[in-house]
Design goal:
Blueprint (H helix, E strand, L loop, with lengths): L6 H11 L6 H16 L5 H16 L33 E2 L10 E3 L2 E4 L5 H13 L8 E4 L5 E4 L17 H18 L29 E3 L8 E4 L2 E5 L6 E3 L1 H12 L17 H12 L3 H28 L1 H34 L2
Antiparallel strand pairs: 1-2, 2-3, 3-5, 4-5, 6-9, 7-8
Helix pairs in contact: 2-3, 5-6, 5-7, 6-8, 7-9, 8-9
The chain binds adenosine-5'-diphosphate (ADP) and magnesium ion.
Length: 358
Amino acid sequence: MPDSAKPLDVVLDLQTKRGARLRENRRATLLELARRPLVRSRLPRQRQRCLVNAVWSTLFGQRCLVNAVWSTRTDTHGESVTDQSRGIDRSDEEPLVGDGVTQGIVRVGDTVRRPVRPFTLTIQAFLAHLHAAGFSEAPVPLGLDEQGREVLSFVPGDVPREPLPPETAKEEVLVALAQLIRRLHDAAEGWAVPEDAVWGGIPGTQVRNSTPDGEPPLVSPRDYCPGNVVFRDGLPAALIDFDLARPTTRVDDIANALYYWAPLMHPEDRAPAFRDLDIPHRVAVFADAYDMTPDQRRVLVPTATAMIGRFHVNMRAAAERDPVFRRFWNEGAKDRLPRAETWIQQEGPAITAEIAHR
Ligand SMILES: Nc1ncnc2c1ncn2[C@@H]1O[C@H](COP(=O)(O)OP(=O)(O)O)[C@@H](O)[C@H]1O
Ligand SMILES: [Mg+2]
């Protein structure tokens, strides 16, 4: 970011460069509002908060649950707190490291700061919708901070890392996850996607879901890897990291969760506690807890098979473009994904039979 650039200008620029055009009149109003809290840093905090809320409401054309504090760090004279190097004080920032995809995530008190990407505003609007619709087991979107980073509420709990620990192999975990995702889907269903929505994805994606399962589309996270599920009292209690959210279907999203948590992988690639589990039975436990319809049960395995095939093609393409994905590829995805494809071809019929009988 050039030193002279104002963070929200940069965000808007990103949005418009990616073709997500804000209507001209909205954009002008937004820019006008966006400048105020930045140039008038002596404004009382309450006023700054109002201005930022106004910015977000204008952007999304709706009242969002955004409760951003634009300038959370001011000294007693109302000036921004600065350090010698970049005018930034990082003393209260705790780095958060997940799967290593997103760099620069930090915790500040009960908030998380993440870099702004072209899709950030869309995802914040989606999160706001989820909360407004009664799904509160996701970060609360809190706008942007004075450095132009996105601000989300910190979700307390434990986030497991791979290999998944043995206690996460219990059926109760699958049940709680299925119920959580069911509630998320029900809340997501009513969202009117903004016409200027921008979506993320892994770099260089070649194949997208073509929604072959005939289900109506809805926006959903599409990334239930262990690092994105927050546990409390040993059970999934909330979801974080909506970077890959985009329009999908319930079944396609469920297939993603099952890939990681049934899991729909070759035994060789599972965490030790998952190696000998009865996967068709576990998928049925999930299907029952979610209350999947007969149609959803019928299309689950073909949808999951197609999804794993896409993972393979897209991961290979991402590895060619991006060093983080190159590392994932070389450290195992290049063998794991073809093995998963072979495994689901073999085991798929048994899964379909097991879930159909319920
Ligand atoms: N809102 C949040 N609440 C609690 N922990 C979070 C939150 N956001 C991120 N984290 C922690 O930081 C890690 C990495 O963040 P994440 O958003 O998943 O980034 P990545 O894109 O690298 O997967 C997570 O696995 C989690 O431990
Ligand atoms: Mg993550």
